[in-house]
Amino acid sequence: MRNKILNNESGMAIMMVMSVIAILAFLLADFTFESKINKIKVYNQQDKFQARLNAEAGLNFALAKLKLYQEGRNLIEKNKQLKELIQPSLIESVVTMEFMYPIPLPAGSDIQQRSALEEFEKNNLIKGRMGVTISSVSGFLNPNNLRVTPVVEEDNNNQNLDSDPDSDSEKTIKPEEFIEQKLVNTLTQALETEKEVNPDYDLIYGNANPELLVKELKFFVNDLKNFNDSERAEIEANYLSANITPKHAPLTSIDELYLLLGWNDDLIELIKDKLTVHEVSVIAVNQLTAEQLKILFPDITEFQLEQFFKHRDGDKELQIDAQEFKSEKDFKELIVGKLAIVDESTYEKRKKELEQAGLTIAVAGKLYKVVSKGFYGRAEYSITAFVDLPIKPLPEPKKDEKKDPGSLSKPINDDQFIDEEIEDETVEKTEEEKKEEEPPLELLAPRVIEIRLE
Questions:
Q1: In a domain, 257, yes or no
Q2: Is the residue at 203 inside a domain?
Q3: Structurally, how many domains does the chain consist of?
Q4: Which of 443, 449, 434 is nearest to 88 (CA)?
Q5: Is 357 helix (H, G, I), strand (E, B) or coil?
Q6: E strand or H helix that includes residue 371
Q7: CA distance 337 to 205
């Protein structure tokens, strides 16, 4: 009996030991699994940090390249002889070349090139991979340019001069009116194009009114006291009924279009790639798209559009070499002369309208989009930044001293009369001479005006 009891106790002890071992084994496996998971998380976090460092290094590299671009542009702008030899578009094309690390070598590279690259990679501090692209922002339709500039009251003398019937009476369009007109035309054209290809057009865009939508956008970005259009009451009532407060300030990101009450998401997706909220004072003709060219010259035909891009970008099938514009003069010759899209007077009128809206036709831009991607292990980090090179403002011209009205009654001798004739001849100069005397364009250091992290 005693042996039987001992056997039972030993069996129970063995069962308890085995149970404990099983529980400990389960806990050990669970602990090991959790440890491996945490270890993987830590490594992934380290990889993500390294990928972010690579992306930030790429952005700094892009800023350094744009700094060199700024120095080069300023140098050739100040030196007329150098400007004739080196075009701004050439410098821009060098700066905007895509950069990748590790640097890829072509298949036919020799041993010396490969060893040089290996030595370079061995002595640098970059770990992982990196890719940097710099592209000029060519979109020039900026909703913020719809902002109305308050009229500054001038003195009576200036008002009398403005009302002089002998002065130039040609009416000039206001910058916000020009941008508003172009936005309406662009939105109308985008809707017409969508109508031809989208079977659900009536359901999505059936009630879209381009004029009213652009007026709402103008209402949204303007100070309320400066917006006095006839549509104000209707637009303001819609926002009050929805209990939504408009921004009444410039947009800082294109994504703020989604805050507009009358604009649905599909409508914004349809047009937002044609807009920019950043100051684009230079229309870079070498980056113009077909849609942007239609905005500049609405009467352009499809054949002229095709010929324009064949001339600028070339055509491999027809063996036509690309001929990028080296100056605004080259662009004008193609538009007015070879393709006859518009006549010279229309071109100059359009150019004047653009200048009044703060836009200049040129071959190289001043606003760039930088996309820097960093890679390490399985991690990827992307930084998208908009970098602007502001144009240094020109000093304000000195105001001419006001002539004494009583001086006209003073006797004028022959010497004074001759001097005035010489002065008048000196003042009368051709447009080309005036342009040559214009101070050179000077770019300031590049600065990041918007950044997006992904």
A1: yes
A2: yes
A3: 1
A4: 443
A5: coil
A6: strand 367-376
A7: 40
Contact present, 218 and 249 (Cβ < 8 Å): no
Kindly report the CA angle at 213 between 207 and 219, in degrees rounded to 5? 145
What are the E-state strand segments in 197-304?
A: 282-284
Place of tokens 């140098």: 75
- How many other C-beta atoms are found inside a 10 Å radius of the C-beta of residue 131? 17
The residue segments making up the domain with residue 195 are 174-275
Query: How far, in Å, CA of 384 to CA of 366, rounded?
Result: 17
pLDDT tens-place string over residues 238-274: 999 989 889 998 888 888 899 998 898 888 888 887 7
Q: Is residue 197 part of a domain?
A: yes
Q: Which H helix or E strand runs over 17? A: helix 2-78
**Which CA distances in Å does 440 have to 349, 362, 388, 447?**
24, 14, 19, 21
Which two three-digit tokens encode residue 297? 């010259």
Confirm whether 266 is domain-assigned.
yes
| Residue 314, phi then psi, degrees to nearest 5 | 80, 175
Q: Tell me the pLDDT tens digit for each residue of 135-193.
A: 887 666 788 888 886 655 444 444 444 444 444 434 455 667 778 888 888 888 888 88
278, 388 in Cβ contact below 8 A?
yes
User: Taking the model in full, what pTM does it have?
Assistant: 0.63
For the CA atoms of 164, 170, 174, 179, what is the dihedral angle to 10 degrees?
A: 180
Contact 130, 343 (CB under 8 A): no
- Asked if 362 contacts 284 with a C-beta cutoff of 8 angstroms, the reply is yes
**Run of H or E residues at 345:** helix 344-356
